[in-house]
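> forwarded from #structure-qc
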């Protein structure tokens, strides 16, 4: 089983930056594909960024060029650097660890990101 603990959310002005962190328990972190998802009020949860265990990444078109996902396997942590934030980025952001045995993987508790003047 995997436990994920997120941090770094908050209130930021448009054009500002935040870095989200997701710390994972266990010894198998380096084997997991890790993703950041977000869910705005009354909207479906969507994939924001994905990083595979080999380091390759994928991003939603809406965040390309602004967000960067990275991982530090020695610290069992995945990050989401968010730059040039826009009001439409406002959402609860969730960390996810893929699993070959648990459908849907493992999820963090979510952290609120609010972009507003």
């Amino acid at each position: 089983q995997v436990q994920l603990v997120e941090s770094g959310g908050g209130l930021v002005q448009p054009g500002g930056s935040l870095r989200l962190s997701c710390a994972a328990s266990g010894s198998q972190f380096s084997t997991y594909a890790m993703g950041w998802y977000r869910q705005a009020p009354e909207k479906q949860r969507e994939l924001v960024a994905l990083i595979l265990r080999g380091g390759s990444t994928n991003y939603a078109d809406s965040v390309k060029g602004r967000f960067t996902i990275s991982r530090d396997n020695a610290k069992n942590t995945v990050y989401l650097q968010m730059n040039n934030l826009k009001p439409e980025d406002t959402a609860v952001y969730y960390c996810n660890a893929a699993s070959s045995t648990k459908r849907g993987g493992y999820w963090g508790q979510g952290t609120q990101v609010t972009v507003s003047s």
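QC bot note: The mean pLDDT is 95. Residues 33 and 84 are 26 Å apart (CA to CA).
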